[in-house]
Amino acid sequence: MQIFKFGGASVKDAAAFRNVRFIVQNYSVPGELLIVVSAIGKTTNALETIFSKAHGNLIYEEDLLKLKDYHFSVASELFSQNENRVFQHLELLFANLQEQLQNLVPDKFDQQYDQIISFGELLASTLLHHYLKTENLPAVWLDCRKYIQTDSTWREGKVDWTWTEKLIQRDLPEMLSNGNIIVTQGFIGGTSNGQTTTLGREGSDYSAAIFAYCLRAEKMTIWKDVAGLLNADPKIFPNTVRYPQISYQETIEMAYYGASVIHPKTIKPLADRQIPLFVKSFLDPESEGTRIGICPHEKLAPAFILKQNQCLISFGVKDFSFISEQNLSTIFHVLSELRIKINLMQNSAISFSICTDYDPTRLEKLIETLRDQFQIQYNISLQLFTIKNYDSESIRNLTAGKEILLEQRTRNTYQFACRA
Ligand code: ASP
Ligand code: MG
């Protein structure tokens, strides 16, 4: 069996849903397919706005109405008005969402975030399920929160693999053997006491890989609006090239550095069970795309990756002693407690610097905690560029005219932080 993952762009409107149906009909067989779908279009961003407004006691009703209209307008293009069930189903989900928004409590931000933001995927999977059924495909809807079991690390649930595999193995092979196409949600999971968790933004790829792993799928395909895995994001860099095939290792590293094409956690479960991952264009399903798997290859074309909105933080010792392992251990401990992820780090005689995604709340806590021990300086609004498999020309071209604040080079990778 195989796993298809459809992201937000592939279900952004009614035409996109029709295209998904076309792909399902032509590139899979009922009984051998599980579909993971993300929230439609930019729904997750909209839900984040609604949630933060609601949480801050600001007026969110208009945004919520807009989101509801969006879903109903897609639905009314896909379904005739007498298909009451789907409209009722959407009404129910929106009523439930509204109720939860009205009952937010001041703290527990991250926990409540997960309960609210997960509606995007519930709505999308409901739409897709009903739509495939009206098109006479044997779709069944699966609540993945009952299968993907996580701890309660809100917004980044850690998967309990043993439980998850057990639950999936208990039910899904039988559902498939009855000739069904399973439609389920990306991005979300559930705790043992029935709370919803999310797996981290853009986490639907990871969800698909979890199902692939637990079902020992033959292959998994991520359907995207690009021709495959490219050496750079074509929206940012000119003259991109597609890798026809690439190893798990290379892909993991690219994802780690911030290549937005695949969620970083996706590759490990697939590599563990040697399940090949195909990245294909939903706009041109006949084209070859990229195969990610076990494959030896020569040196690859340089890959260019950009992370925006970076913050460079330097911790200096206060008394002209050197930065010691003890100092580093203190800093790392606090970073880990605050869940601040290091994208790049460098040590010098009297200071230690890190580049991280900019998060004002976490930064403030970090400074508060370490202010007594270190002289802390930071810059924000930076960009972090990575060139994997660099050559001198690629470095020359990319750094030209940029004000570099920090740079680093290993055998295969060149990185620098600069002003945006
Ligand atoms: N809808 C979620 C997000 O936008 C998950 C995903 O798209 O993978 O982050
Ligand atoms: Mg998305």
TrEMBL record:
Domain Aspartate/glutamate/uridylate kinase positions: 3-281
Biological process (GO), any one: homoserine biosynthetic process
One GO MF term attached to the UniProt entry: ATP binding
UniProt entry keywords in alphabetical sequence: Amino-acid biosynthesis, ATP-binding, Kinase, Nucleotide-binding, Transferase
Superkingdom, taxonomy of origin: Bacteria
Gene Ontology annotations for the cellular component aspect, listed alphabetically: cytosol
Swiss-Prot/TrEMBL catalytic activity: L-aspartate + ATP = 4-phospho-L-aspartate + ADP
Enzyme class (EC, first level): transferase
Entry EC number(s): 2.7.2.4
Protein's pathway: Amino-acid biosynthesis; L-lysine biosynthesis via DAP pathway; (S)-tetrahydrodipicolinate from L-aspartate: step 1/4; Amino-acid biosynthesis; L-threonine biosynthesis; L-threonine from L-aspartate: step 1/5; Amino-acid biosynthesis; L-methionine biosynthesis via de novo pathway; L-homoserine from L-aspartate: step 1/3
Any Pfam family: AA_kinase
Family: Belongs to the aspartokinase family.
NCBIfam families referenced in this protein's UniProt entry, alphabetically: asp_kinases
UniProt-recorded name of the protein: Aspartokinase
Organism for this UniProt entry: Adhaeribacter soli
